[in-house]
Write a structure and sequence with these properties.
about 800 residues, transmembrane helix, membrane, CBS domain
Length: about 800
């Protein structure tokens, strides 16, 4: 029940938290050192409309006389019913507030035309908000794609006709390109050509090498410096924090305007630096920032944290939609991976927002090929039943690598947190960038961006391809071609063997460097690096299968379906299956991942291989560790997240988990009458609890209700300022009618309006597995424990998480927040 988020101090601080928060008061969240004073991005919800759960009486307090109640709807109390930073919302209260608001609007709509129009606009506001979120996120994603493509090419050269053109666009209008060297044109010159006048020779290679490293270091330095100086929350993927926020946790500023601006800029710089990271995960964070900012335009989303989280769930779908050009996959990703509460209405709105975002991105056409992603492919050759064996092998590889990667990355991140390494984030980024650039440049497959590498590996070789991966020996009979534009299986040539060696080295490099890159203080996604590892492994296996089929087409394995001169094996398909396997092994996605990959390829016939490989990778990875990478980082950072997929198998009871324990002091409670303002303030100052049970008396311990610490302090502070006669000796009563008082005594302070008269309770013998289910499905912050109607103790979400950590032999003190 002890929550560090509720800080004691002067009562005035609750009205203006940013005015009293010490600039030196820091906390380490997601590996970033954060300042509590950055609250302007996401101000506390205004809550003049706090009402009792029944809706019959608004919360209030004494006005100018002891019996005069102030209606907050007419005289709002700033901050009442809101939450402190790093605390969990009360889902039940927020949904109750929204139902009361909707009921009031519906009733008023029958009274006048203006009220009817207000009701219609209120119902339409959700769809309008989804439209704006889709437009804004799609436009930002298009700008990020264009800028990242340009800066990535800038490391290798410059366009003479316009420095703002990337390599591909620069050579589009050139008439001097050849088919074999389509990337070479006089308008585009490498840095060696610009500096030395020649592109040949060892000196030119060294110049290009050094310029590549210098640009990479410059981009990385700018990225980490901007994050550190302006928006510490902009680092990392953002998906672990988004999952935690969607479960009801408050992290002020994480989805604010500064985080959006800095994350957008630094994401471009980080991707362009050549680090082994992707932009797909951070795009989910960017889309959620857009949604959170636009929520402030609509009262019903600005003033209700639960409604806002419905919008953020839809925004997560938008992020994946623009990242992969997969609107349906985005909706399923939000449902399967990040959302905590996903009603049917949110499903429809997520679909609409993802559609708008994909349409916006398609209109921008960032890659100039009318596709939403760089690695869109279309395969034509069918797959055969025998190929399920290598597909399942790729699934096993993906599961093994996913489990190994999670353990290695978490160990590295824990080392970063617990050693001096974490004190030098800028130096860490620069060292990793320099190491990546030095090792990546000599190998063409590590030098190119992750998306370009995946596009190259997914590519199905045709007659028109000059890629090294298509370096087969020329066919003796050109009439023997495969299906469509693809060629029949051919023997591997010297170019292909060279490419395979380079890919093998790239696989080792990517597997190792991604472990230390993910989690640094720059925006870093994991989708593209994971897919790249799997695509390399898949392409290697695919070429091996292709050569096996070519030289052994008479064996019993291939006989009957792979005749000489036929296009039997598609290596690009193996790359795609491998990419899905490794991404599934790392994130434990299943349905959404298959749909995303299907939308990338546009081929229905490849769903079965994708499903087989994805399920295999999940089974293998789950056998080695139940957590995906995002759940592992949530646990590493101590967030209060009750994983819906995790089962509680222990036979303990609530009395074993509740507080106070036998050795603890008695539970701090308020009595419904008999306590003075001074006594209440002393109790609040001497504890750090987020709320207090209200009982009939200390002797009976009969439960009356529950009052939040924040509401209590705000109400007392407001009464001192606005009501005459309220002093420390004034009686505080939580009953409907104030008791009789002496004529010369101060007037009582009646605070029944801020009491939750229907708090959730369980008995002391309720099994903990039932209690955990109640917390998960209702999103509770705390639950009171009673015995025959008498209050015994309290259980908070933090208590449950600590108990589950102890059962799993983990450190219970790793749970930092409630």
């Amino acid at each position: 029940m002890d929550t560090s988020g509720f800080r004691t101090g002067s009562l005035d601080s609750l009205h203006h938290p940013s005015d009293v928060d010490d600039d030196d008061e820091m906390v380490d969240i997601a590996g970033a050192t954060l300042d509590f004073s950055h609250t302007d991005d996401d101000p506390p919800l205004g809550s003049g409309d706090y009402e009792e759960r029944g809706g019959s009486r608004a919360a209030g307090m004494n006005g100018n006389g002891p019996n005069k109640m102030v209606d907050p709807l007419e005289d709002p109390l700033p901050g009442l019913g809101t939450y402190e930073d790093f605390n969990t919302i009360d889902w039940v209260r927020e949904k109750s507030k929204d139902r009361d608001r909707h009921r009031e609007i519906t009733n008023k709509s029958k009274e006048s035309t203006v009220a009817l129009l207000h009701s219609v606009s209120d119902a339409f506001s959700g769809w309008l908000l989804m439209l704006l979120v889709g437009l804004m996120a799609g436009a930002l994603a298009g700008g990020i794609d264009i800028a990242a493509h340009w800066l990535t090419d800038l490391k290798e050269g410059l366009c003479l006709v316009g420095f703002w053109f990337n390599h591909e666009h620069c050579c589009w209008t050139s008439n001097e390109t050849t088919f074999q060297e389509r990337d070479r044109c006089p308008q585009w010159q490498s840095w060696a050509e610009l500096i030395t006048g020649t592109s040949e020779g060892a000196f030119a290679y060294i110049v290009n090498y050094l310029m590549y490293i210098v640009w990479a270091l410059l981009f990385a330095l700018l990225a980490v410096a901007l994050v550190r100086a302006f928006a510490p929350y902009a680092c990392g993927s953002g998906i672990p924090e988004i999952k935690t926020i969607l479960s009801g946790f408050i992290i002020r500023g994480y989805l604010g305007k500064w985080t959006l601006i800095i994350k957008t800029i630094t994401l471009v710089l980080a991707v362009s630096s050549g680090l082994s990271l992707g932009k797909e995960g951070p795009l989910v964070h960017v889309a959620c920032c857009c949604a959170n900012i636009l929520c402030h335009l609509f009262t019903k989303y600005r003033k209700n944290e639960a409604k806002r989280r419905e919008v953020l769930s839809a925004a997560a779908a938008v992020g994946v939609s623009v990242a992969f050009g997969a609107p349906i996959g985005g909706v399923l990703f939000s449902l399967e991976e990040v959302s905590y509460y996903f009603p049917l209405k949110t499903l429809w709105r997520s679909f609409f927002a993802a559609l708008v975002a994909a349409f916006t991105l398609h209109s921008i056409n960032p890659f100039g090929n009318s596709r939403l992603v760089l690695f869109y492919v279309e395969f034509h050759a069918p797959w055969h039943l025998v190929e399920l064996v290598p597909f399942i092998l790729l699934g096993i590889f993906g599961g093994l690598w996913g489990a190994l990667f999670i353990r290695a990355n978490i160990a590295w991140c824990r080392r970063r947190k617990s050693t001096r390494l974490g004190h030098y984030p800028v130096m860490e980024v620069l060292v990793v960038t320099a190491l990546t650039a030095v090792l990546a440049y000599p190998n063409s497959y590590t030098r190119m961006s992750g998306a370009e590498l995946i596009a190259e590996l997914f590519n199905d070789c045709s007659l028109l391809d000059s890629s090294q991966l298509c370096g087969y020996k020329p066919p003796t009979n050109t009439s023997k071609t495969g299906v469509g534009n693809s060629l029949a299986d051919r023997p591997a040539g010297e170019g292909l063997y060279t490419a395979l060696w380079q890919l093998a080295l790239a696989l080792v490099f990517k597997m190792m460097i991604t472990v230390i890159t993910f989690g640094m203080k720059v925006p870093s996604g994991l989708f593209i690096p994971s897919m790249a590892v799997g695509a390399i492994a898949g392409r290697l296996l695919g070429v091996g299968m292709e050569q096996l089929a070519y030289y052994n087409h008479d064996s019993f394995i291939f006989k009957g379906w792979c005749s000489p001169g036929a296009d039997c094996i598609t290596p690009g398909l193996y790359a795609m299956v491998g990419a899905a396997s490794c991404l599934g092994g790392v994130t434990r996605m299943t349905v959404s991942l298959v749909v995303i990959m299907f939308e990338l390829t546009g081929g229905l016939e490849y769903i079965v291989p994708l499903m087989a490989a994805t399920m295999t990778s999940k089974w293998v990875a789950d056998a080695l560790g139940r957590e995906g990478i995002y759940e592992a980082h949530i646990r590493l950072n101590g967030y209060p997240f009750l994983e819906p997929k995790e089962e509680f198998g222990h036979s303990s009871l609530t009395v074993d988990v509740m507080r106070p324990r036998r050795s603890d002091p008695a539970l701090a409670v308020l009595t419904q009458e008999g306590m003075t303002v001074g006594e209440v303030e002393a109790l609040v100052e001497s504890t750090r609890y987020s709320g207090f049970p209200v009982v009939v008396s200390q002797e009976s311990q009969r439960l009356v209700g529950f009052v939040l610490r924040r509401d209590l302090l705000i109400s007392i502070d407001n009464a001192r300022k606005r009501q005459e006669g309220v002093v420390s000796a004034s009686q505080v009563v939580f009953t409907e009618h104030a008791p009789a008082q002496a004529d010369d005594g101060p007037p009582p302070l009646r605070l029944r309006g801020i009491v939750d008269l229907s708090p959730f309770t369980v008995t002391d013998h309720t099994p903990m597995d039932i209690t955990v289910d109640i917390f998960r499905k209702l999103g509770l912050r705390q639950c009171l424990v009673t015995h025959n109607g008498r209050l015994l103790g309290i259980i908070t979400k933090k208590d449950i998480l600590k108990h589950m950590a102890q059962i799993a032999n983990r450190d219970p003190d790793s749970i930092l927040f409630n």
